[in-house]
Amino acid sequence: MASPWVPLEANPALFSEWCAALGLDRTKYAFHDVFGLDEELLAMVPAPVEAVLFLFPLTPATEAEREQEKAASDDHLLWFKQTIGNACGTIGLLHAVANSRARAALQAGSPLATLLDKAPSLTPEERTRVIAESHDLQQTHASLAAQGQSEAPAADEDVDLHFVAFVRSASGALIELDGRRSGPIVRATDVPEKGLLSATAHFVQSHYMARNPDAVQFNLIALGPAI
User: What is the pLDDT of residues 166-217, one digit of tens each?
Assistant: First the structure.
């Protein structure tokens, strides 16, 4: 197994830089803070939102649920298994770009475009090897992990925070993409075309936050148009 990476900070500017460094046209897409879950604050996020990254604390309850839930089968979704410790930020970013319209804004031949073009023909295990062996991913992750506003923990530190991504599938389902599960998870159906952020906010509030009301380490970051 590959050595663990230093965790990424939940920082939209760093996430935007990650994408730009690997080939996303930054004049078209960027990441934005979600400052709260009520409708007025959600409406402040540049729309349309293409994907949402969610940071939450791991608990015995979330770990038990992860072992029990069954993944959905959808050939249109690209899912990456996480085998590198603390790489959940990069895995979440891969899921966000790979399964949204932002993918069309990747520069041809860029590291991210090359990886995502190759990934559909690979098994989940083969995809993990491609990620582990990608110098571009490793270097970009390491560079941005060192640029956060807070002091980054050591790579071998046991971090109890985890990133997942939420996207809207072609059939209108709210999909949670978590590299530590066995595949994509359907969280809701019949999500309106422009309703991803609202559906995600409702789900994380009722599913994650309600179960851990004393925790303060929740964070939502949205992928949307550059402003």
Answer: 999 999 999 999 999 999 999 999 999 999 999 999 999 999 999 888 888 9
pLDDT digits (tens, 9 = 90+) for 50-95: 999 999 999 888 888 887 887 887 778 999 999 999 999 999 999 9
56 - beta bridge partners? 162
Report the C-alpha gap between 79 and 73 in whole angstroms: 11
Query: Three-state SS for 60?
Result: helix
CATH number at residue 212: 3.40.532.10
Query: Is the distance from CB of 185 to CB of 62 less than 8 angstroms?
Result: no
Question: How many domains is the chain partitioned into structurally?
Answer: 1
Pairwise CA distance, residues 33 & 220, whole Å: 7
Would you please indicate which residues are annotated as catalytic (active-site) residues? Answer: 88, 162
181-186-191 Cα angle (round to 5):
145
